[in-house]
Design a protein that fits this description.
cell projection, FliE, mainly alpha, cilium, disordered N terminus, 3 helices
Length: about 100
């Protein structure tokens, strides 16, 4: 029985040692990586929207008669925008969940 108490006594020290061994800049670096990831995704969605707009303008002005490529560009832009909106919704839900947790 005394051995179990000794193990429980050592366990919190082990947890403290493992938490203090993390580098100090880990949280800010991962935050910067996440920020860069979101910026890249937004840029990609914006590029798809601009390409679709350009394709539509070319069809309307008569520069091209390739409606097939225009529709593909429009669908890519639509799907990428819908995906980005769903990601945004999940991020907002996660933030709200964190805010609801009691400390």
């Amino acid at each position: 029985m005394a051995e179990i108490n000794n193990i429980n006594f050592l366990l919190p020290n082990k947890l403290e040692d493992s938490s203090s061994s993390k580098p100090a800049g880990t949280q800010s670096e991962s935050g910067a990586d996440f920020s860069a990831l979101l910026k890249d995704a937004l840029s990609s969605v914006n590029d798809a929207q601009l390409e679709a707009n350009e394709a539509v303008q070319k069809v309307l002005s008569g520069e091209t008669k390739d409606i097939h490529s225009t529709m593909i560009a429009l669908q890519k832009a639509d799907v990428s925008l819908k995906l980005m909106l769903e990601v945004k919704n999940k991020i907002v839900e996660a933030y709200q969940e964190v805010m609801r947790t009691q400390v």
